Amino acid sequence: MSVFKFPKILATNPQIEFISNVNFNGYSLSVLREDTIHPKVSGNKYRKLKYNLIEARKLEQDTLLTFGGAYSNHIAAVASAGKMHGFKTVGIIRGEELSEKINENPTLTFAKSCGMELHFISRTTYKMKDSLEFKATLKSDFGDFYLLPEGGTNQLAVKGCEEILSEATKRYDYICVPVGTGGTMAGIVEGAQPHQSVIGYSALKGTFQKELVQKFSEKQNYSITDSYCFGGYAKIDSSLVRFINEFNDQTGMILDPVYTGKMMYGIVAMMKNKYFEKNSHILAIHTGGLQGIEGMNQYLKKKNAPQINL
Ligand SMILES: Cc1ncc(COP(=O)(O)O)c(C=O)c1O
What we know:
The chain is α/β, with parallel strands linked by helices. The chain has two domains: about 10-40 and about 160-300, Rossmann fold; about 45-150, 3-Layer(aba) Sandwich (Rossmann fold). Helices cover about 35% and strands about 15% of the residues. It contains eleven helices and ten strands. The protein has helices at about 45-60, 75-85, 105-115, 125, 130-140, 155-160, 185-190, 210-215, 240-250, 260-270, 295-300, and strands spanning about 15-20, 30, 65-70, 90-95, 115-120, 145, 175-180, 195-200, 220-225, 280-285. A six-stranded mixed beta sheet has the order 1-2-10-7-8-9. Strands 5-4-3-6 form a four-stranded parallel beta sheet. Pyridoxal-5'-phosphate binds near residues 73, 179, 184 and 288. Pyridoxal-5'-phosphate (PLP) binds near residues 179, 180, 182, 184 and 289. Its cofactor is pyridoxal 5'-phosphate. This is 1-aminocyclopropane-1-carboxylate deaminase/D-cysteine desulfhydrase. Belongs to the ACC deaminase/D-cysteine desulfhydrase family. Pfam families: PALP.
């Protein structure tokens, strides 16, 4: 096994891109381009994996095992990082029916091309994935492994996400971030300055992620909204697709429809509603996830609906 070292491509300092001084209320909006870290191990995926891979290496584990759905950014990132750093990877995928359709699914095709061993289980079994019994079955099927939870959130992932913030982000009044499990937000809340408010935009119904944030941080300078989740996880409509395409036309920046597109839609809506304090500097974290667009476009094409421009 090679000595662990992140290649240069994973060690860049992402730039903050200024978008605009918005005409009303003196707002400015900037984006921290975490998506530019790496095409597949981008944004919060890189941050979440960094210390976990170091730990796996320290424990002399040569296999990473994790869980995910059909279009999971986390599955693509683990497969790619595993290939780069010489780990075997196993992906436990939700939905037995997908085993017949790997070639039709860009995320699974990519994961397989990186050498990830894909293992498909029913949705019912998937719900039990965190039980001791199921973990014992995995051990007997795959031997020893380093387990990364679904979505990659654990203590080491939160530690990595704290590093999203730096000296350069201290001047912002609001830090906006998309929320799935809440792990990325927990790191940002921990790393934020006392004068900064962190706003999480839930990609799914509910704001239950607060519980997870509280598990990792005692700070209170944050809120989570699900007002821009478009009805639930991976649910979208034509107004969101139109927004993502217009944003791309105007800024040259691609947003994904599951996380960053919904966050940015929410930020713009809240700017229009004058939610933020007058003259505020707002920073949006682009957490990556662009690999999922191809899968979403396949779905939109089947429905004869407008697709996301790449
Ligand atoms: C691109 C992207 N942004 C944001 C998130 C949300 O991250 P978290 O689950 O840590 O809340 C995810 C999910 O992992 C993601 O893939």
